[in-house]
Design a protein that fits this description.
This protein has 476 residues and is α/β, with parallel strands linked by helices. It has 2 domains: 340 residues, Glycosidases (TIM Barrel), CATH 3.20.20.80; 122 residues, Jelly Rolls, CATH 2.60.120.260. The protein is built from 11 helices and 18 strands. An 8-stranded parallel beta sheet has the order 5-4-3-2-1-10-9-6, with helices on both faces. Strands 11, 13, 14, 15, 16 and 18 form a 6-stranded antiparallel beta sheet that branches. It has a two-stranded antiparallel ribbon with strand order 7-8. Strand 9, helix 10 and strand 10 form a beta-alpha-beta unit. Helix 4 packs across helix 5, helix 4 packs parallel to helix 11 and helix 6 packs parallel to helix 7. The longest helix has 17 residues.
Amino acid sequence: MMRKQAEVLEEAIQVVPSERQMAWQDLEFTSFIHFGMNTFTGSEWGTGNENPELFQPKSLDCRQWVKVCKAAGMRGMILTAKHHDGFCLWPSAFTSHSVASSSWRGGQGDVVREAAAACREFGLKFGIYLSPWDRYELTYGQGEAYNTFYKNQLRELLTNYGELFCVWFDGACGEGKNGRKQEYDWQGYYDLIRELQPNAVISVCGPDVRWCGNEAGVCRASEWSVVPSYYSQLEQERMKAAGGQLPREINFTQMDLGSRKAIRGAEQLIWYPAEVDVSIRKGWFYHEEEDHTVKPLMKLLDYYYHSVGANASLLLNVPPNPEGLISRRDIEALLSLGAQLQIDFRENLAEDSTVTDSCRLDDLHSGQMTLDPNPDCYWHSGPFGKAAELILDLGDDYDINKIVLKEHIRTGQQIEKFAIYGEVEVKGKPQWKLLGKGTVLGHKRICRFTELRLQRIKVVVEQTRGFATLSAIEAY
């Protein structure tokens, strides 16, 4: 029986992120490192028939990868420990198709270990990608035999390389109608991760982080973190196991996943934030003929503002070359991005300012709390969130072109419509000029506009699901 709108909305108000999801959202910008056999064969999807001896990254320097990523503003790195060809970047005890079968480093090499150590050294979080599809492994398609094999490899990665912030599952499979069919034991994979790496989020084909629906570097104008549970691989598997029917409307490319209309009738809602994955080049692996496709600074900035600035995380792929290094063109683009982000967010002009509010839950949740760096301090509207106003007074005029707003997502995602105004003089009289408007805020919304000289900025909450919160108002 379809639930009433009011009942679904009441549930939506109460859905909040887990601690691991909170930690993941705080990272905001991370790197994807596609590196493996495809780097040496010029392929994107290998066959599994490649000779391990082809793997010869003679100048491998994972410290270089990490230093470049950190300079670009990234806070984490995810390595393709095994792609679809089945070649493992660590000496797995469960296959001969790995670095141990290459003469590189005398058969003693371990890219995963070097990458994890470099991340620890320079303060980046480390995560791994382990392709469920394996074109080399003979047990693929044999049900439990392959699931046991896969969990054995997963256990190696979960126990031998320190703390992981993410395990990234790709659902890709190109076997075709006559190919091998494998039923993945998703629940078993998840249970193993929760047991051995309880703080790691499980991304894309997992319960913690969802794919935004494209690889174009942008998310939706309204990117809800609260969506129907059937968008999660975990919930889909549970529904199948219980003999239930999956809704026809499961489509990650739909433009609306979380509005009141989209969640109407949903049996259950979950916190399932979006990740935007895109490559700095045309392909995901390095190909010399694609050197000219490295994205320019303005494109990379667009990716950042249309993901991190729109309640999503940005996962930017940076593929090392066959030498085992990030190439010069990529480095130049990434260093330019990092430098520009430093300029764009060098000084928060809202610090040491004053915020007044039209309503509040109590004096501990006043508008002034939006300027407190403590994440546990926030403005709460109380039950009067709709039409609530906060006015930021900078104390003097400044050139402003960006306002950053953050909801206190520990209490959920509540704001459905907002507007930002700046006070300007028109014929000698102060007037409020619209600077920007939108729907969801969530973890972070960066509102950009033509630069104006401003002292007072007003944030108006026009619609909420029950109440409104803001943990930060920043001006740049």
